[in-house]
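Hi support team,

I submitted a single chain yesterday and got back a structure, but I'm not sure I'm reading the token output correctly. Could someone confirm the output below corresponds to the sequence I sent? I've pasted both exactly as they appear in my results page.

Thanks,
R.
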Amino acid sequence: MEGRELAPGEKEENVILEFRPQPTREMIVARLWSHWQEGDKSLLSFAAVTDDPPAEIAAAGQDRCIIPIKPANVDAWLHPQVAT
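Hi R., thanks for writing in. Yes, this is the structure output for that exact sequence:
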């Protein structure tokens, strides 16, 4: 995290990062959903779509970043035009 080698005897620590965009606003996130069914067992799952992070997030040690969707693009994300 600090971009340095650990000192002798020093152990790695988990770091919790919290990003607070300014101004505060709701965030719409690109996700892909799936429904798995096997016999009588059912599983709903989703994954957030990620990309390379912006510089300030990469500098904090993250190698991926979720992709926010602008409110004006929500309909296009939910109802894409399929080329035939």
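A quick pointer for reading it: Residues 55-59 form the longest helix (5 residues). Let us know if anything else looks off.

Best,
Support desk
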